[in-house]
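Hi U.,

Before I forget, here's the chain from the pilot set. I'm dumping it here mostly so it's searchable later in email.
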Amino acid sequence: MSKNAITKWLIHASFFCVLVSQAAPQTSNNEYVIKALFLTRFCTFIDWPATSDSITATDDFVIGILGENPFGNILEEVVGRERIKNREVKVINLTTVADAHNCDVVFVNKDSDTEVKEFLHEIANQPVLVVDNSARRVTEGVHIGLKLVDQRVRFDINRKAIAEAHLNVDFRLLQLADNVIQ
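Structure:
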């Protein structure tokens, strides 16, 4: 690893650690700013297969939102000038579950467990990172579940589900998670 790459990684890792250990309680106004930052920083610690359909389908790194968009325009503002995996970022609202096949990441904001199970079945074994707005479905196949603990954004990870999606998760992200499902 080059000195430049190590420096860049250290900056990303430091920023992510600051997010995880936020000292200030999260208000509902900034909860989604923090969640948007988490969503983009997770990608730093996930590797997609080189032959991923999503990479050949578009030059953009696509983040899809399944369900109501809780971010408003916050997510677009956070990713506006960023690149993820050396690709420009595009945020889309998914109108059908099939649209998720063109995404690199899908943020799930659905109350219905049945709809989420159907979605997970539809994209099974696809290299799409699934991040849920709730950690309660991590044991059911969601890759990363966000949650509020003592008014701070935290997360759980399902390592097995990530591996089944042909994604690799960096051990450093696993160490930051509250719970890791093997």
